[in-house]
Amino acid sequence: MNKNKGRVTLPSEENFLKETKELMERWGADAIRDSDGTKLDSAIKQLNAKIYMTYFVARGQNEFAKNHMDECQQLYLMSLFHTATAEQLEIDFMKGYFEEQLQPDYLHDPKKYWEIIDRTTGNVVDVKDWEVNEEMNRVIITKAIPWHEYTVSFLVFAIWDPTQMYNHITNNWGMKEHDIPFDVRQPHSNEFMQTYLKQWLTENPETDVVRFTTFFYHFTLVFNNLGKEKFVDWFGYGASVSVAAMEAFEKEKGYRLRPEDIVDQGYYNTSFRIPTQAFLDYMDFVQKFVAEEAKKLVDIVHDSGKEAMMFLGDNWIGTEPYGEYFENIGLDAVVGSVGGGATLRMIADIPHVRYTEGRFLPYFFPDTFYEGNNPVIEANENWLTARRAILRNPVDRIGYGGYLSLAYQFPEFVTYIEKVTDEFREIYDTIKGVKPYSGLKVAILNSWGKLRTWQTHMVAHALWYKQIYSYLGVLESLSGAAVEVTFISFDDIINDGIPDDIDVIINAGDADTAFSGGAHWINEKVVTTIKAWIYNGGGFIGIGEPTAYQHEGHYFQLASVLGVDKERGFSLSTDKYFVTPVENHFISDDSTVFDFGEGMKNVYALTEETEIIEYSNGEVHLSSHPFGEGRAIYMAGLPYSEENTRLLMRALYYAAHKEKEFEKWHVSNMYCEIHVYPSIQKMAIVNNTMKEQTTFVYDEQGNKKEVTLAPSEIRWESFSNEG
Q: What gap in Å lies between CA 519 and CA 511, rounded to an integer?
């Protein structure tokens, strides 16, 4: 296959051979895949292409599942809050949940495995003081305290796989049988998962790549009584819980988990919650189990002479590509959905696999491909944001999913993807394995560290949410910027200090979230280590409510370093004198307007040394402050945009005391970027918009030349390393 073909995976389906051949040629595809809801017919399987076949380990086998309903997957759920008005309180604990997805577990004794909590006091209600009405799905509390609130934490069986349910609703599949997920921690299910895979491999000899979608436990996705999403957490471990898991955990870790360790007051331990030690222990327990069991399946695949690929989605919980046990699974590849630059890097940076693949948007489903809509718009936005990250570290392959017959009905879309696939191959062939130029090394500091590499501030993967876009923009900007990025935790700092090669630390998030850090900021070792590091020349950028935790007269625990704090009503009696912005500043030299997203109210400057860069509505939104030999920057928020990417880059260089190096390998037009590869003496000058752009391009010595780029153009140029 020549340079202009390959590295692209195409979805296909039955009775679509001619069109599949045409698009394989036009898009240069060298692999064919099925999708949930489609099958490949035998004619398509005979094409000169690698065949990916989707394989569901713990769903899609209803004959087995129906005969072993006691091994169905489980979740702990929490009821709505109910206020007692008398000593007896009856709670409909299933209210608000979708009974086609979930059924209460009465096989295991509720008195042993459920928990009723007085949420007014936090006390657990004695099991003698409540009963269960199984026919009505009710809990009756017999000694409630009037005007106290109560919740029920209860076990359910998950009788419908949530991804199939989502696809069922989205595509109006009607009478399609509901997939029942089974738990491979259970004996019959564990044996079945291995024997059936061997049988499946024998029955599908034309398969080259087994695309595990994924392994055992779905991320937490629970639907409400209307069949709409009620709770979704792409990182959630809820569906890995079972009586068997709780008992195995106690045996392995030496203590018993409570239901509350899982339901977590109804927050279910989302990645925004600062993890408790019990939940960290549970995650470790699940990851170890998943890695051990997944390795058995991967070994079976390898023994059959085929490759094993994991989809970073659906049932991915426990695999944790940046976790301790992932390498042990022995996978050949990981494929994941690309929502933009941050998710592209999340996939591309995964270690311990031979290749990575990005599934680009849009998915070929009728919610996008319908008469009157133009899917090119979404495809273009997806490609341009992801391309920045590809130019830093490319995935090895790209592809699409869904119904190819739908996409084929949109000729303009087909033509656009032809351009995208050609451009991807050009980038890959030029830079794969080549280290790009980085002017700085930046560390993202939060409670999770490397485990959540490129995964912070996400709810349902890369979907937009109101209170996260102001922070997710930081990752999106950095994903394609000329900086090296690493992720560190508070425990890393306590145990190992701050690595010598870090130029700037970023702490971004709302107060009391895992990403800001909460009570970690009253740990003396954390605070003094970071302060000393900044004082001796380090750079620090705080975004939103960085270092926030009310303690000893400060809300921002690095207030004296940042030069700002947040007024919480406690110091209204103290006048706030420092309100005058500086006339100009290095950080804002390219800015004409500011966008801090949700922003942050009531942040004020502490001293005359605070350089106020943006002040409006009586609040500081952007500032800088010296601290010894170092500098600290405050930002109220940073949604992703070209303007904010430039603002962040200027802030990083200023915080690092490297302003003089800012125009080294630089473009003057913020809607363009330059990616430099010193070892091969090449650079890519990129237009990140769909409009023509003109920019000055600066080389390593600061020499400049003017360049005009066509809409979304990449221009490759060679240069000499000699001054």
A: 10
